[in-house]
């Protein structure tokens, strides 16, 4: 066992050294003959390779599939419009099995085997936290689409950025006033028992207390759980509002059993749409959701005041007005999250164009270019809404939506402004060296 | 929630777990008892049952009950046929050697799991229950006004969950009748007691082995068809039933059918009750601890017989 480990570490050190040597050589060449190198690069029509760390299997599979569809659509649009710096974009897909250990290995493959320019696309927070340190070591820009607060909290490093989707801290902070003001002040939280759920637990508890409310019970459920009724008796009777957020393959069972538990006399229910991502809201057993509220990153059902950007985005990705696949109306997308892939890829394009990105040697320039971004107006590039990027914390801020289930449709009831989700910087990544 | 209703809800949840577990563990136990094969792929036959149930119900359409009944009839037979084929193709070739069958069934585990992933995909898919009415349950207490009945919040079950418990009891009774009252059962028991002697008396041991391996897998699939309207079909759903089945079979006594039932009820009920009052993780810890205790103090299991 130890022998095998020794061998494998020796091997990877050798390959790392080789890689370092090669890149040093390349740098030297570029230094000695700057004119030639620039000429060679200007001629290059080799594709820009983006490594897509995809949750193709494991508990994140439903998200992975739709992150994949959105990524393909965004890349097609970028390539149809001339690519990035005149070069086509190529997506290299690797399955991480929604597993942190595999996630770090996948980044290694992107950097050394596929020779990707950057890595992108991770959602599940434990995979991001497991992979980001490796991205820092590999000096590989790592654009995550994860919602976790770990980017802005300062836990990660200068190579990890989240410019396409807001984080949980910002989301729950902008939801708390609505919950306390409209639904009730005594809240029971039900959340998945890993980093993402803990973000919800910690930040919502603080946010609701700031509104004069309180969390009367915190019920953590492992994300691999398949049966939920046994957790519900821990909901105290004094509960006025159920706050639920769940992920994993069994979310439909979770919501169904929640309905069966309460029957006709339910408290107010406020959920994160995560509990129903990729699930048809009209599934049998979900009738009790009528009149309940959901946070949505982007409204799944096309609203009455639908923007042209939303329309164009849906058409490009191939989903209808109810957020389901155009080819199969039963195949519901992870609509409230997957816009993050679309917007992140457009940020990458803008960043690469601003920094005149030519190859891996320009990775630091790319990160500096993204860090310099601030206002991102609503557009076809950013169909979810206007955003503000904070270069110091590597985190974007945007609008949040609350929808009410009305006649089986998610109808937007409240829009939280960008300012509602702002909080003080907890880190300054720009002070870190590359 | 008050203690009384809480305990009742926990027991109801535990009874559903115990019902499914007794079917699944029974399959594992029969296979070990007759063939002396530790079937590591047992959980995958369970998963296959759930996944095929989804295929059957979604292919038929119409009223959910129609698809469910069809799945209940077709799927266990189909899974049994797959298992019997695996027995013929793999286990027979390695002469049911104890060590090699473990490796062989691990191989079967991965083949089934990855084939499902490639065809069915990584998503969880629901199967609609044939009927599913929420039943609120009353609770009694002696208060100031004497004996009173009230309806606590959340104390409920569904008609389908009760059906699962009843169905498991009926299936196990039927299995017991087959084993004790029919010629097939007689042949199975003869093979279990001494396969060489049975062969000498003209029992086609090879066929019996295939049949038993199929029966074991079919029981797991039957359990899965019953549970899939409560849970969902997913390609990784075989892990937990496999672990729990092993726990049950070890506690009950390897190859002892009554022991398996007793242990399934014990583990299922305790899993349900401990999960509700404390946490499902603690329930698993206690079950595993129980296995360790049984192995130390009563290695033959609760109802197992010591080797003569």
In short:
The complex is a heterodimer of chains A (434) and B (308). With 434 residues, chain A is of the alpha/beta class.
Structure description:
Chain B: The chain crosses the membrane at residues 15-38, 45-62, 68-86, 159-179, 208-230, 242-267, 273-297. Chain B: Keywords: Amino-acid transport, Cell membrane, Membrane, Transmembrane, Transmembrane helix, Transport. Chain B: One of its GO terms (molecular function) is transmembrane transporter activity. Chain B: It holds the Pfam family BPD_transp_2. The complex is a heterodimer of chains A (434) and B (308). Chain A has 434 residues and is of the alpha/beta class. Helix content of chain A is 40%, strand content 17%. Chain A is built from 11 helices and 15 strands. Chain A starts with a helix and ends in an 18-residue tail after the last strand. With 308 residues, chain B is mainly alpha-helical. Helix content of chain B is 71%, strand content 5%. A two-stranded antiparallel ribbon of chain B has the order 1-4. Chain B has a two-stranded antiparallel ribbon with strand order 2-3. In chain B, helix 2 packs antiparallel against helix 3 and helix 9 (239-252) packs across helix 10 (257-277). The longest helix of chain B is centred in the first third of the chain and has 33 residues, at 3-35. Chains A and B meet through helix 3 and helix 8 of A and helix 1 and helix 10 of B.
